[in-house]
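Table 4 source record.
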Amino acid sequence: MTGLHRRTIPYAARAGASLSPREMPIRLSGVIKESIVDGPQLRFVVFTQGCPHHCPGCHNPETWDMGGGFMTSTSLLWKSITENPSIKGVTFSGGEPFLWGEALAEIARCAKSRGMSVMTYSGWTYEQLQKKAETEPGTKALLSSTDYLVDGPFILAERDLELLFRGSRNQRLLDVTGYPNTKAALEIERFDMSGRAVYKE
């Protein structure tokens, strides 16, 4: 998670997309239109609103309120993402993105059609998400369209500022591109200059 300043989404966007998401409502806390600290390469970061985890020391406690933030739509969000042709990936943070799994999966589908990578943060572990996906279509849809997952709650006692793209040592940076065909995930050590994952041995 990050505490960087966020800007709300404009209601008009200049660029269109060849593939468009299904029109769905989504509640956001905000966005960062250009970030290099929320995943590999230049990314567009989406902060969803609402979180059940309430981790002590959370960087974004303003995202906890299920009724906070603002309502927008998948189509407006996608238009905002496609305004910048330099964006290489989309990151879903929060809040808890899997509360909005179905809507975010639509954004992820369009992003991947343009060659963008998708990174998702969650307070649930990968194992918990797999279990939830058995009965929650939105969770399965977003997990299936996620390339990189940072999983688990932020634990203040395990806070480590040296970790890549995460805040506490219990959290993992995982390649989950094999899901749902396989439940196995590869733990990522770093990304190279081209944005490719380098895995832990």
